[in-house]
């Protein structure tokens, strides 16, 4: 019983990540901590599902207020559009995770059946998933703290005489909302809570893709290691048949998971592309310079006006590193699926058989990779494509003189 308890599984690898996500209204699945995946279930009337639905409603309300502001003031500045994109994309992310939760129990049962037939030999993927969760969310927390820190310093340096410090912070952070409706403290708390959820969702989508990719890569590399261990040995035909069947099971896991999280991958990559362009534009257009103080006397700000510049630089580096991580880790699924071919080509003629040929045909005959709703497959070349797109967008934006100005109403 202890051996079963300690056996590395997909359930164990995703447990920490999903539990943290549920605090923010994502993936409201029940029984995620149970060892027996048959107890994993989804219910629309559970507390977690209701919390997730209320989260979606709150995010929709904030998005509608932002849209109303843009329509009322005919404000199509980059700052306002960014707020609308941020709100809408994270609302869609929450909906996609809710959709994934409805399919999660059936998916977990299928994965458990595969793991029962072909158990995970190397449990390092569980540790990798947990470490990825801690690292990504810690770095995301630092980014959020820096963003709020720069706003708090600005509000304290340039206070609004009609509001207290918290009210000034909320008005400075969400002008597109409290220009449409009258500011109240409880509304400020509500909007800030929704904003924290959106910020977390934005990072969590990338983390989720990373953890799933680590697991799938581990399954494929398990097949690759068995093939390499057999190199140079006299192997019966039954071995290659078993390897081909295990490889087929591993690739079926990729397809099953891709069907469930394809939308999450798509929105994750789209978000990364947009916000890298935005933060790069912030850096190139405004430069690394201090904001002037509102006080005539001595500048008492801790970073002397460089608070926003520090945030922009950290955010840009974090976005690039996070995007590279999710792209390269997800691309390893495709790379691992092609590795058996190299070992199969080295099989001597005396051992070559029909099963080996069928194995080779399967490796070359299908493209096994995670995708964004099948619009694109995540491969290493995608990183260069995204980089080229970012450079093109930045040149166009700078050519037209578009700057990330903050609207004043």
Automatic annotation (TrEMBL):
Membrane-traversing stretches: 50-72, 78-98, 174-194, 260-281, 311-331, 381-402
Name by which UniProt lists this protein: Gustatory receptor
Keyword Chloroplast: no
Superkingdom of origin organism: Eukaryota
Record's function text: Plays a role in the sugar gustatory response.
GO molecular function: taste receptor activity
Membrane topology field: Multi-pass membrane protein
Family: Belongs to the insect chemoreceptor superfamily. Gustatory receptor (GR) family. Gr5a subfamily.
InterPro entries: Gustatory_rcpt
Lineage, opening ranks: Eukaryota, Metazoa, Ecdysozoa, Arthropoda, Hexapoda
Keyword terms, alphabetized: Cell membrane, Membrane, Receptor, Transducer, Transmembrane, Transmembrane helix
Gene Ontology cellular component list: plasma membrane
GO biological process assignments: sensory perception of sweet taste; signal transduction
Localization of this protein: Cell membrane
Pfam family, one: Trehalose_recp
């Amino acid at each position: 019983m202890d051996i079963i308890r300690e056996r590395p599984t997909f359930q164990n690898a995703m447990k920490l990540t999903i539990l943290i996500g549920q605090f923010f209204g994502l993936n409201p699945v029940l029984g995620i901590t149970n060892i027996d995946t048959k107890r994993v279930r989804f219910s629309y009337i559970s507390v977690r599902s209701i919390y997730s639905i209320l989260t979606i409603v709150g995010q929709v309300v904030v998005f509608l207020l932002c849209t109303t502001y843009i329509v009322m003031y005919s404000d199509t500045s980059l700052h306002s559009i960014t707020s609308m994109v941020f709100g809408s994309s994270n609302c869609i992310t929450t909906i996609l995770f809710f959709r994934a939760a409805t399919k999660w129990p059936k998916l977990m049962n299928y994965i458990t059946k595969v793991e029962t037939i072909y158990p995970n030999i190397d449990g390092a993927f569980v540790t990798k998933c947990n470490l990825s969760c801690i690292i990504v969310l810690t770095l995301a927390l630092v980014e959020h703290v820096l963003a709020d820190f720069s706003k708090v310093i600005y509000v304290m340096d340039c206070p609004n005489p009609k509001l207290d410090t918290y009210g000034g912070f909320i008005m400075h952070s969400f002008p597109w909302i409290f220009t449409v409706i009258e500011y109240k403290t409880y509304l400020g708390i509500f909007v800030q809570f929704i904003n924290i959820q959106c910020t977390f969702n934005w990072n969590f989508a990338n983390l989720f893709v990373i953890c799933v990719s680590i697991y799938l890569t581990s399954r494929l590399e398990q097949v690759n290691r068995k093939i390499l261990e057999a190199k140079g040995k006299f192997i019966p035909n039954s071995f290659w048949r078993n390897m081909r069947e295990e490889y087929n099971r591993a690739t079926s896991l990729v397809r099953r998971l891709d069907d469930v999280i394809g939308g999450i991958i798509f929105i994750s990559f789209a978000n990364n592309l947009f916000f890298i362009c935005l933060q790069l534009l912030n850096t190139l257009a405004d430069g690394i310079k201090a904001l002037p103080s509102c006080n005539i006397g001595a500048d008492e700000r801790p970073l002397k006006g460089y608070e926003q510049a520090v945030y922009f630089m950290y955010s840009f580096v974090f976005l690039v590193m996070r995007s590279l991580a999710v792209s390269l880790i997800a691309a390893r699924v495709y790379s691992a699926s092609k590795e058996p071919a190299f070992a199969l080509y080295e099989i001597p003629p005396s051992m070559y058989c029909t099963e080996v040929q069928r194995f080779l045909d399967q490796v070359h005959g299908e493209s096994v990779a995670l995708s964004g709703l099948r619009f694109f497959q995540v491969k290493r070349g995608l990183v260069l494509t995204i980089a080229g797109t970012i450079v093109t967008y930045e040149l166009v934006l700078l050519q037209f003189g578009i700057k990330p100005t903050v609207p004043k109403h």
